[in-house]
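seq:
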Amino acid sequence: MDLSAGVGHEILIGIVSNAIFAVFLSFLNWLAKPASEFLYGKRKYSSRIFISGSWITWFLSNILYAYFSGPNPTLFALATGGLLSLFLWKELNQFSRFGLLKLDQSVRKGLDYDTALTLCTNQFEFLGIGASKLTSSKAFEGAITRCNRLGTPIRFLLTKPDNPLLIGAAKQKNVNPKEYKKRVQESLERLASFKLDRGMNIEVRFYPSVTNRDLQLFRIMFINDELCLLSYNVIGEGDGSQLPQLHLKNFTHTRNVESFYYPFREYFEKLWVDSLAWDFRFPIK
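struct:
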């Protein structure tokens, strides 16, 4: 009887301790937002505070539990760890629920251009300046070959080589004023070779480039109509591989408008309609 009572007492203590831990995590979750606003202002997110605070709470609670000789500290650590994982999953899942899969610190340290091309198996579309980093990649030919379909063209939305902003960007980078224009021209020549010499189903359109404002800020790559790699251009500051990159997922089994993939896909399609089709002839008119 004494043994049963002791076991029951330990179980009760474990249940109460975990309940207290869960309540404290809930309180921490509620406190994270006002604490974030107080410390950093309303423009900052509370996720960092909540996640850091949760780990600290878990660590300290297990130390205190062991210090006061609580029964089965290992079981307590596993149980509270499970609760912590549940709360953290809820916190992180709020991003994936809206198609935000991952954020690379930089393109070169995350899903770089070569690796991204190897993922292209059925569909490939790109919005950028000249696509020179893609067309010069060793993985580009394989991606084009895999994605070549009669009914689904591989589409590129680019700027014309004579865009005056390219000259300004080259001067800002302290290189030959015609260097960026040359890169865009060479990239277009490679695309024309795949189109005319290899018969690949490639379409290229030039978005308006009358003024400096017309140069596209975003660099967007759609892969298999499932994944969107989103980065941006800072003219005159490197090739863009040093900048952050966001991974967006398309929702195919639920409403796609609930994913951030949707507005960027719509943006691409509307810009495509408003852009000038290229006939793959040189000089470009």
